[in-house]
Amino acid sequence: MRTPYLLLDVDGVLIPFPDAEGASPASHNRHEVVPADRSVDDPVTIWLNPVHGPLLMQVIRTGLVIPVWCTSWRHDATTLIGPLLGLSPLPNVDLPCPQITTSHPNGYLWKRDHVDTWLGDAPVIWIDDDFTALDHGWAAERTARGQATALVQPDPHVGLLAEHLVEVLVWAALLPVVQTDVPAVPHEAEAA
After folding, report:
1. Can you give the pLDDT of all 192 residues of the chain as single tens digits?
2. Which residue pairs from 56-64 have beta carbons closer than 8 angstroms and sit at least 24 positions apart in sequence?
3. Cα separation, 109 vs 174, whole angstroms
4. I want to staple 7 with a disulfide (CB 3.0 to 4.6 A). Which of 38, 70, 116, 136 is the partner?
5. At what angle are helices 133-144 and 112-119 packed, to 10 degrees?
6. Which ranges of 97-183 would DSSP assign to H, the alpha helix?
7. How far apart are the C-alpha atoms of 24 and 46, rounded to whole Å?
């Protein structure tokens, strides 16, 4: 089996949502960032945990997964979020900007159809805070078809924890390895 993708969301995972009192976890530091579609005079305040960068880099260095941003931050995750965490530039799933009023317009996460197309038959472990039962069913169906799929769902008010990344590593380490003499073709080349 080829190396699985690790899809990473940002909001609710790396940037937790404020609790009922409007507070973010004490472990997170405040940053002002200017996404590509905003003016310098209109920055966005975000809260990031400085421990997340080193933890994610430990996972990436294992080579067990290929990290890819899968977030409505799109390329801004690479240019704004990643550098604040000390991450090397990561590719991102090119998600559209849908005109929706809910994250689940069809009862499941709006990103899922785009991710499914992007993945093809590639194995994946996806960290997002916003999955529904239908998303978990989709993951089970992909796995049953031989496309190993796992979903990791942090509490959106707490965000990513070390145990979520342990779950990623354990899952990836338990996947069967197929030895071949031909190197795997990168996903981007397959789409060309």
Report:
1. 799 999 999 999 999 998 888 888 889 999 999 999 889 999 999 999 999 999 999 999 999 999 999 999 999 999 999 999 999 999 999 998 878 878 888 888 999 999 999 999 999 999 999 999 999 999 999 999 999 999 999 999 999 999 999 999 999 999 987 544 444 545 554 444
2. 56/8, 56/85, 56/87, 56/165, 57/86, 57/87, 58/165, 59/6, 59/165, 59/168, 59/169, 60/88, 62/169, 62/172, 63/3, 64/3, 64/4, 64/168, 64/169, 64/172, 64/173
3. 27
4. 70
5. 20
6. 112-119, 133-144, 162-173
7. 10
Tokens of 10: 């940002």
Cα–Cα distance measured from residue 150 to residue 128, given in angstroms and rounded to the nearest whole number: 11
User: Against a cut of 0.85, is the pTM above it?
Assistant: yes
Q: Strand pairing of 124-127 and 29-33?
A: unpaired
- Identify whether the C-beta of residue 53 lies closer than 8 Å to the C-beta of residue 85: yes
Q: Specify the length of the chain in residues.
A: 192
Which residue type occupies 89?
P
